[in-house]
Amino acid sequence: MFDRVSGIPAHPLFVHGAVVLVPLLALVAVLYGVWPGSRRHIRWPLIAFAVAAPIAVFVSKESGEELSKQFGDSPAVAAHEEYADKLFWFILALAVVSLVMAFMVPATRESTAAIKAPVVAHYAVAALAVVLAVVSAFYVYKTGDSGAHMVWGS
């Protein structure tokens, strides 16, 4: 399943999903966490990206492992796979925190009065989302950069 799509290696095709969805999840999670005025507009996109981004990273990672079987192991491939493994765990954590944030932090000012959860918990979840977003963005960059250097050789 992760090997080829219409005869073309799947990894170069699937990786574009991760390259787009990880930064989008990171951006929307940070906005949702730090800008209360945006919450009612971006709650559902946050939920959608929190579901789609880890799936895209997983599919990219699995297709990359299939592709590496064809070319063998090298230090560059090992480094690329290590970045991808870390990216998967950080994006999964960001997705979970984003979903918690989407259902814990009120989406509108009117709903703020109805929710009695401690404000400190809201800030803690938002701060964790920001940290995970930055780390996820870093690892999507490092994974992509190491893969590009392998392919384009610079």
TrEMBL record:
Signal peptide: none annotated. It comes from the Bacteria. The chain crosses the membrane at residues 13-35, 42-59, 87-107, 119-141. It comes from Dactylosporangium vinaceum. Residues 7-152 form the DUF2231 domain. The keyword Transmembrane helix applies. Keywords: Membrane, Transmembrane, Transmembrane helix. Pfam families: DUF2231. This is DUF2231 domain-containing protein. InterPro entries: DUF2231_TM.
